[in-house]
Amino acid sequence: MKRLTKTLLATAAILAVAALPVMAAGPGGGFGGGKGDCPGYGQQISEKLKLTAPQKAAYEDFQKVATAQREEHWKTRQAMDPAAVQSMTVEQFRAHQTDMMQSRIESKTKVFEARQKFTATLTAEQKKLLDDSIGSGKGKRGPHGGGRMM
């Protein structure tokens, strides 16, 4: 029994140490976790779609909203005190969870609205190119295996 306990503890310690680089990497995993995190991705989209000045402005507005949403989510996650969460009663935890979900919904709604404003500026041909590049929600997953643009 002691050997099993020691083996489990050693395995847990190894996994915890292995997870440190991922946890320390920051929003999006630090490896371009979202399209907005990939260096030069906005420029690639702009060039591929041949965006006009007003379209570029709408795209930049979308990127700002999406980036702010990701950063806010990351800060919220980092600010969470696990001990405080664990000491909550079931009712307190449910209220906390509901507040977090509502905040996330509001934040995602802002990103969705910014994306809608951007895509409304595009021509039908540009929309098709964009869908082909990032996935249209019909099973496509984009050039890097990623998801849709928020």
Would you mind describing this structure in some detail?
The protein is mainly α. The chain has a domain at 32-134. The protein is 71% helix and 0% strand. It has helices at 2-24, 41-49, 53-79, 82-86, 90-120, 124-134. α3 packs antiparallel against α5. The radius of gyration is 20 Å and the shape is elongated. The model is unreliable at 17-36 and 139-143 (pLDDT under 50).
Portion in beta strands: under 5%
Structure classification: mainly alpha
Question: What does the overall shape look like?
Answer: elongated
Share of helix among residues? over 70%
SSE order: HHHHHH
Q: Note the gap between the termini.
A: 49 Å
| Largest sheet data | none
Low-confidence stretches: 17-36, 139-143
| Alpha carbon gyration radius | 20 Å
Number of helices: 6
Number of DSSP E strands: 0
Q: Report mean pLDDT, rounded to a whole number.
A: 74
State the gist of this model:
The protein is mainly alpha-helical. The protein contains six helices and no strands. The chain has a domain at 32-134.
